[in-house]
Amino acid sequence: MGHHTRRESLSAPHVASRPDHFHEAFTADLLWPFEKLEGIERDDVRETAYEIFFTACRSSPGFGGRNALTFYSSSNSHNEHGGEGSLLPSSSGTNKPGGERVVTTPTSRVKRTLGLKMLKRSPQRRMSTGAGAGGAAAAPLSPGGHGGHTSNSSSPGYSYTVPQLVRPRRPMTSAEIMRQQMRVTEQSDNRLRKTLMRTLVGQMGRRAETIILPLELLRHLKPSEFNDSHEYHQWQRRQFKIMEAGLLLHPSIPLDKSNTFAMRLRDIIRISETKAIDTGKNSDTMRTLCNSVVSLSWQSSNGVPTDICHWADGYPLNIHLYVALLQSVFDIRDETLVLDEVDELLELMKKTWSTLGITRPIHNLCFTWVLFQQYVVTAQIEPDLLCASHAMLTEVANDAKRPDREVAYVNILSSVLTSMQGWAEKRLLNYHDYFQRGNVAQIENLLPLVLSATRILGHDFTITEGAGEEEREITLVDSSGDRVDYYIRSSVKNALTKITESGNVKSDTAEVKQEASEALLQLAKETEDLALKEREIFSPILKKWHPTAAAVAAVTLHNCYGAVLKQYLGTVFMLTAETVEVLQRAGKLEKLLVQMVVEDSAECEDGGKAIVREMIPYEVESVILNLLQKWINERLEKGKECFQRGKETETWNPKSKTEPYAQSVVELMKLAKETVDDFFEIPTGITEDLVLDLVDGLEVLFQDYASFVASCGTKQSYIPTLPPLTRCNRDSKFIKLWKKASPCSVGAADQLHQNIANEGHHPRPSTSRGTQRLYIRLNTLHYLHSHLHSLDKALSISPRTHPSTRNRFNNNRRANSTTASYFELVSTFIQAAWQNVSEVAAYRLIFLDSNSVFYDSLYVDDVANARIRPALRILKQNLTLMTAILTDRAQALAIKEVMKASFEAFLMVLLAGGSSRVFYRSDHEMIEEDFESLKRVFCTCGEGLIAEEVVEREAEVVEGIIALMGQITEQLVEDFSIVTCEKSGIGLMGSGQKLPMPPTTGRWNRSDPNTILRVLCHRNDTASNQFLKRTFQLAKRRLWTRCRSWTEQGADRGGGAATELAQQGADRGRKSATSECGCGLWWLVAVAMAVSSGSGLQFCSIGFRFCSGLGFLMVGGGLGFLIMVVAGGGHE
Questions:
Q1: Does residue 321 form part of some domain?
Q2: Domain assignment of residue 434, given as a range
């Protein structure tokens, strides 16, 4: 304790104490443990307490008596006078002449026991003015001396000092110290002394507890002894308030509601509120007052007469008065200090116990409270006061264990300790707010006090764990460790909650989410700072009561931050850089807190396992992994949506010539590239597993898109149906006559060839819009495939990819691959789709778009007149258009497929050309020449798009079949027989056995029996005709079948009416004719009429030529023909 300047004389300036509002600022959260006194101010209580104190000590040295008077009290006992174990003092000092007691060598047993330091001031410095040489003697009861001039007062024997000369300083008496400590004016003190002199005239041995002091004051003090009537009225009102509180409101012995004296007293008190009561000797009011007060004060609980009047011993008045006395032990100049004279003052205060109804346990409890309250009032700057209060709790604890405790004492005990505990726990439950590095040592003083108070109260306590639905209450048996554990958890949680509430960790919009991320990052930093502060400042002190204080704080911080992190993650629906940063910062914080727990609990029996189990892991890596998976799934879902939009809106029309591919693939690959780029922008460790997860999803997406692009049908849908096998018959006389009879007519095939020849001078491509859209599909597949390479490169060279920590099946997929490509599977799939679309486009181009110049016209009727040259011109134009549309990388395969389709069509013409095609052996050279021309087209197409060896390899089959057509019929028959027997497993042919019909495989080659058979079917000679008829009974090609074909071809070019008439006539003739000649005639006429665009006379001339040439065999037919011609001519 520091030194300070003490008062040196009563004449020194009065030093006022701090105002009440200053005290209230520090005691706002310290509950007053005693009931309040309504209508009585603190100053009123203090002055009344001094009056009681002075009256009780009136016979003690220093209070006016020449010698110490005998003090009689029915409450005195061994324990109440400072027996063993009591902190009540046994004062030592010297008695000055005149009975004034002063402390010569201030040594305080109380301060030594409570740990309070002595002020160590010279007793000579606590001085007052005394009698000087030649000075008048002071009055006996005055603080100045024992003689002096008498006043004009009517009270006998009362005198007071009249200062005349400068008096030397003298030590202050206990009475003077007490008056100054209680801030009582000399005027009030003189009035009190005067009253006592008048009251005790002839009764100097009267005990203090028999004096009803307010009543005596009212009786003996007159208005003339006050400065004015208002002062007297206020003073009188104070006396009435005290009597009202002690006798009516808070009596020690309960009153009957019908008590007459109480009713009279209430009436008088009510009257005194407006004006002063006449207290003269002849006043009826005064007589009534005296009777009522005396009667109420001397009543007993059991009716037995008592020797103590009960006017100030009712609760809480007595406690208020006694606490006011105890508060006088604090120096009014420095309220953090206890006077060195505390022993003597407490000894004197003990004399008031009988009047106030105070016992030693109540004294100990009140003194404990006063010390604690003073510590709070003085802004907690003097820890000695707190230590002293804690020391007093030891006495209180001993008192609380006594079996003879009164109910009133127990109630007061509970109220005081609860108030102290509540104030202290408010700080301990939030010690981060109330204590810093400069005052953290106060915890070391405050915590023992709280624990002692808790033990005295014998309370268990309840703590709450968990949050939300998991919240639960746990009741713990009171113990120091559990209590401190509760304080640590609560304070840490409250501190972090306050930090959390200052930020914004709730996220709804994008801006708020960013703010929430920043707030959570800041919270992690402040949580880390809080943990370090806990470990450095608070834990070393709390460790004295809790061995793992730092570990408990770390666990609490971990769980509290985890709850905030969980709340934040509950609003995160996609992985962002901010989210990853938050999670990584949380992981760093978790490592620090776990390290704190491990270090602090290393000495525990279980090595800290129990407290570590309280930590709910953040599982940052798992959360990031899940969010990454979620992010991947969301991006893949966007890809699916993009793909679905493409399926619904794609028309396969290019945006421009510079972008000859579908727009859907552009959007899809753009999204895929953004996904890969954003994937590696995520600031976290990307493992090979995650890369493969992304690749797997993209592969499925790309495969689905490639399947969509390739869903354009198959090449089989464009290949014509194979016609039935028939044997070819040589030209009959009828056919020859037809050719003679109609030299001016133009056949359907001749007309078709003529038209193609005419178009050959200005050929134009025959590629349809549908085929061109197939080209766009090819370009789309190539675009997809080319961008796969860039994606694969981005995935492969990324430096942020780390080896996988999981045992994943797909991990080995890339390692075992020879290409080390992420998209190997989908690349293979795209190539298959590419192949399919190329085939479909090629077969559509040849068999649909070029059908009129290729399959439908090549070698029809006559090889010499239906050569391949016109078809090649159209083919070249189609190939030119194809290369103009297709991208460079797509051209080679597309042209190769067109070559295969062309070769296939060429074979179809030779082997499945139908009844309109017949071949002679002599046609072999022309066909071979045409095929060489066809090969040359592909060899010279583009700049090496197809290698010559590739063309030759694909042409081998066709050339082999052309070679068959150059063989003699007998050789073909022999080869056919041998191959058929080998294929069917017959071996050598026996007598009577027939060759089986070889199946149609569609895979043409010169060693295939079905291929050789088809060559024989199209061979126009007798040997082949006889062999086919004999071996397989194949039907001959009917003349009407050929004519029908010509009619269908001519229908596209002949006149409408003539064609329809010819068709009707032909059908009627076919039904009525009984001979082949008749039937053939009718069909020849129909063909002539369908092909010719001349008049009816021309039909007639043709008919007459037929009739004259055929003779009688054709008479019937000729007549019918003439009738039809006439009808037709008439129609025209």
A1: yes
A2: 383-459
